[in-house]
């Protein structure tokens, strides 16, 4: 919280204690916790919203989608960011605590699979990726690459990206025991950029500008054309994400405990409106279908 906001909150408390009425008493704080994939996006949304709404303070922290949803269930956060859909058991736990969780699809994302730029591999099928991460393929030579042992990097188990990848790419099979867990997607990018035999995955925005990485094209099966999540110029191809032609496309969610009210509702309405969606595009995520981005839909 910056100094101006701290002073504002302190002043509001002082006036309330003195029995005074005034505009500062309307100040509200929204807490947002969850997905590390969405931390940069969530922080930018909060910064821009607070510039235009000076009576609202928004605090954004990560920790993983599971951590954010747990905080929502326990009533310790206003909103939860998540890069995966909420699980049935989490919904049930919230209901036992007296809340029906409400879901908002706020943006889209392409999960990119990356290798070191020195690795000549430029595409894989979904089946090959699944076999690599479950330990059935262990050498790059088995998929047309160099004779080197594959070193797998993944996220921690409380990450929505970890869960989404396991469900949609590994078909719910377990990750290979030797897969190295990393604390965030930036750490995955750093590890693979230094490891000629490495492979990793995460939101494409974390990898798109890193010249030490190669973002692979992915084919649904061995008869399908491999699809890149990027256009020729390196920008994200919105069309293949919106249509989910790119095989590992997903929504990014915000959850609230019950229908949002007051400042939280106004904030969510703003996120889903033109300004919030323009911010999604500016920081290299994918806005919801129907919002801008037409210049990104040129041939892949």
Report on this model:
With 300 residues, the protein is of the alpha/beta class. The model is unreliable at 1-25 (pLDDT under 50). Strand 6 (151-155), helix 6 (160-168) and strand 7 (180-182) form a beta-alpha-beta unit. It is built from 10 helices and 11 strands. The chain is 33% helix and 22% strand. The longest helix has 15 residues, at 3-17. Strands 1, 2, 3, 4, 6, 7, 8, 9 and 11 form a 9-stranded mixed β-sheet that branches. A two-stranded parallel sheet has the order 5-10. The protein has helices spanning 3-17, 39-52, 65-74, 88-96, 126-134, 160-168, 185-193, 238-242, 262-272, 274-282, and strands at 28-34, 56-63, 79-82, 101-116, 123-125, 151-155, 180-182, 198-203, 213-215, 217-219, 249-257. It is globular, with a radius of gyration of 21 Å. The N and C termini lie far apart (42 Å).
Question: Which terms would index this structure?
Answer:
300 residues, alpha/beta, two-stranded parallel sheet, 22% strand, globular, disordered N terminus
């Amino acid at each position: 919280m910056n100094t101006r906001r701290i002073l504002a909150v302190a002043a509001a408390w002082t006036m309330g204690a003195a029995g005074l009425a005034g505009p500062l008493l309307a100040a509200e704080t929204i807490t947002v916790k969850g997905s590390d994939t969405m931390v940069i996006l969530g922080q930018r949304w909060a910064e821009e919203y607070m510039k235009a709404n000076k009576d609202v303070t928004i605090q954004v922290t990560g920790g993983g989608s599971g951590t954010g949803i747990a905080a929502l269930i326990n009533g310790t956060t206003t909103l939860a960011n998540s890069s995966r859909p909420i699980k049935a058991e989490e919904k049930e736990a919230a209901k036992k605590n007296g809340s029906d969780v409400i879901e908002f699809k706020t943006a889209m994302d392409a999960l990119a699979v990356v290798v070191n730029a020195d690795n000549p591999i430029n595409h894989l099928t979904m089946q090959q990726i699944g076999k690599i991460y479950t330990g059935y393929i262990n050498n790059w030579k088995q998929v047309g690459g160099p004779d080197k042992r594959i070193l797998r990097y993944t996220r921690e188990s409380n990450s929505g990206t970890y869960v989404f990848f396991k469900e949609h790419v590994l078909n719910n099979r377990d990750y290979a025991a030797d897969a190295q867990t990393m604390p965030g997607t930036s750490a995955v990018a750093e590890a693979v950029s230094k490891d000629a035999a490495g492979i990793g995955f995460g939101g494409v925005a974390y990898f798109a500008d890193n010249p030490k990485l190669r973002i692979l094209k992915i084919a649904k099966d061995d008869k399908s054309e491999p699809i890149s999540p990027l256009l020729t110029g390196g920008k994200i191809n919105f069309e293949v994400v919106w249509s989910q032609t790119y095989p590992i496309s997903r929504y990014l969610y915000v959850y609230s405990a019950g229908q949002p009210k007051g400042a939280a509702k106004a904030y969510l309405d703003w996120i889903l409106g033109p300004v919030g969606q323009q911010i999604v595009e500016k920081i290299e995520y994918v806005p919801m279908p129907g919002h801008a981005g037409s210049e990104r839909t040129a041939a892949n």
